[in-house]
């Protein structure tokens, strides 16, 4: 988890950054599975869903940037909020979920993982979860800064992605919020079926 | 404690979230955009006000919980402590909105849509913090507040603003993660982790574990409460536009930190457990140091907003000190100081903003003679400064009196000495400003140069409110009685112990 986050931090290409961040995030799931108690397994399962949705959303936006500007380095994200305002907003929601900030799905999967780790008294795992979240915050907020705050050329025009590309991005971002707040109805039946002994 | 079921706490949170969406949609129509802000602020204030009678009767207004998972829920309810905070924040949002419109128009600021939208989200998060019924809900809104304030701190988009934004995130997200670990641990010990007056953790775990959890949790909320040495983000964040500094760095964000301290100390751990862990002495010591060092640092700052920031650092620790001393008068004084400091400090920030709009600088040495040209602004500034120094007849005296009384009740007269010393330091760093503004010769010929009513009306109102609250602490929202209600509930005492301290 920590190594994946550190490598992600070192990338200049956003797609490579996202790929390394996936490496780190798989660590979350394996951690949950190996801790093995009810809370950690819940966290791992929820994270499988959450990560699929949020990373899908991030890659779709990164792909959109590449498609529009032929470039996917950090610099291509300068002033992105003016060129692709809606996609950038979706990107931010997914990024918050990756960092594990409420009220997104990524927060709740991290919550269960932490609960499991504290319950198992696995303090190194607690430390790794906290550290990897903070590293995630560094590289995602760097992108947010590029997209929203850093001075960008004044000539940028609003050219949002076409609807067929934008629609899945919006659906994924919205489902991150819904999955966060309503994960009970989605998860409890699934876990009861998969792991009847832990509930 | 009777519970009334109503959706009003939830509505108070949602109204400004909805407003944020509407503000973003009316990007091209500034007047409509500002109308949404005013409408939401007024609605929110009325919603909080409508819950006040029930809370005064000692009831709790609770919304239906949103169950996430068995034993885990997002739950909002209004009790006495939460209502004090919510009442203050929602009333001051209304005034700050008026002030913001005047300030941003005077400065022809850019990105105004994002500014008003983030402000609305911040207020939603503040209401959520005030009304959170359990630790999970508190944490969710606490982090939401961090996220929503970040764009406001970096609003100017200069290199300095971006650096301040990064620093702000590093401090608050780092503190947030510590708080998260503590919240997880506490939830594990006491499923649900619902706030209870007097706390619920006593005897649930060995002392070492409880001390660790308390340390992590206090470090987490200590960042926003600007407890030294976790205060570094606050002076840096002064690069934000003045209305942001006024509402967020005098009321919402920093008060969320001290509010978290009060919740943790008296609704999670409880006074007797704090004493058992010797945390009361440690926390009170840290608060006392912050009070003195913050005041000393304020003395050395030549920029008006940074001086106010260090004064905030110092004054916030009055509240932490009250929470740590855990005697009825100290706790009541701490809760009352949330409102008193909020009113007084927002007045001072509003004045700093008015000075900036008029002169485009904030260097204290350049303020000579300005008081005769801007009498309303500097009159309010003088009142705010007197109030923070704890002068009788102003709101700051009421809280300081109770804090001092509480220090004696706790048998720690040394903290009374700290309060007196800090009061003197307050005079030392505020009164040269007031004196030179009114009595030093002005470089330019003096004539009436007061700012526009959108700017002076809010600051005159808050200064007047501070006087009213000093003369009649129970006026309007009956804040003083609510503060005592909090203290008596949390410490389950029969009533105020000493004459003169009662409601």
Which structural traits does this protein have?
heterodimer, A: 199 residues, B: mainly alpha, two-stranded antiparallel sheet, 5 strands, disordered C terminus
Detailed description of the structure:
The complex is a heterodimer of chains A (199) and B (503). Chain A has nine helices and no strands. Chain A is an all-alpha fold. Chain A has one domain. By secondary structure, chain B is mainly alpha-helical. Chain B has a domain of 226 residues. In chain B, strands 1-2-5 form a three-stranded mixed β-sheet. Chain B has a two-stranded antiparallel ribbon with strand order 3-4. In chain B, a hairpin with a 2-residue loop joins strand 3 and strand 4. Chain B starts with a strand and ends in a 12-residue tail after the last helix. The C terminus of chain B is likely disordered. Chains A and B meet through helix 6, helix 7 and helix 9 of A and strand 3, helix 5 and helix 6 of B.
Short summary:
With about 200 residues, chain A is mainly alpha-helical. Helix content of chain A is about 75%, strand content about 0%. Chain A has nine helices and no strands.
Show the helix and strand layout.
The complex is a heterodimer of chains A (199) and B (503).
Chain A: H1 2-9, H2 14-35, H3 38-69, H4 80-83, H5 85-99, H6 105-119, H7 123-149, H8 163-181, H9 183-194
Helix pairs in contact in A: 1-2, 1-7, 2-3, 2-6, 2-7, 3-5, 3-6, 3-8, 5-7, 5-8, 6-7, 6-8
Chain B: E1 3-5, H1 8-25, H2 30-56, E2 60-62, E3 66-69, E4 72-74, E5 77-78, H3 80-107, H4 112-131, H5 135-153, H6 159-189, H7 207-224, H8 233-236, H9 242-269, H10 271-276, H11 279-300, H12 304-325, H13 328-359, H14 370-373, H15 375-389, H16 395-409, H17 413-439, H18 453-471, H19 475-491
Parallel strand pairs in B: 1-2
Antiparallel strand pairs in B: 2-5, 3-4
Helix pairs in contact in B: 1-2, 1-4, 2-3, 2-4, 2-19, 3-4, 3-9, 3-13, 3-18, 3-19, 4-5, 4-9, 5-6, 5-9, 6-7, 7-9, 9-12, 9-13, 11-12, 11-17, 12-13, 12-16, 12-17, 13-15, 13-16, 13-18, 13-19, 15-17, 15-18, 16-17, 16-18
